[in-house]
Design a protein that fits this description.
Elements (H helix, E strand, L loop, with lengths): L2 H10 L5 H13 L10 H20 L4 H7 L6 E7 L4 H16 L3 E7 L4 H4 L12 E6 L5 E5 L4 H10 L7 H15 L2 H10 L5
Parallel strand pairs: 1-2
Antiparallel strand pairs: 1-3, 3-4
Length: about 200
Amino acid sequence: MTALHKLTAKPLENAFSYAEYRALIDSLLEQGRTTGNNHSEKMLEYSQLNVHRMSRIDRTTKLAPETIQSLKKLNHPLTWIVLSEAWCGDAAQNLPIMAKMADTSDQISLKILLRDENLDLMDLFLTNGGRAIPKLICIDGDTKEIQWHWGPRPAPAQDLLRIHKTKPDESHEDFIKQVQLWYAKDKSRTLQRELLTLMDLQE
């Protein structure tokens, strides 16, 4: 049994489906709370905005035909573990697409865990030393071995962060606007290609 399997076996018993994750966020917001320990007005605003983002993506974004065709070729079971939080803007942009991809293939089981409740697992998949989310960890459904991991955002959006860090006069709010604009223009095409490539399904 791998160390990762020991870390994930019990938490996955309480993992959320995408629908359950969405319902949890709605329920918490009704109580004036969000996921994690920070229930400040700003975090609640982020979470509420992300609900609108996810709803819009659920409603309007369709997987590319080639993505659907490729996913239909998947012939072995995978578990996608996604570390996320309600207040995370990148999670709101990417998680709905991951859910659509998982729904397209009966071989993919999507399990969502809250980052701050699973820091032992999160700390195995840091990004430049940080607990950046969303983080998707792909596990072979038979062997329980790690196949690959992805996150916290598609490569071009991550490049925007790298460039932002070289501009001390640019505010974090400016960076967020740039990234959200990139997501709007990209319409999840890059994420779909990146995940297909990791699954060796990209033609």
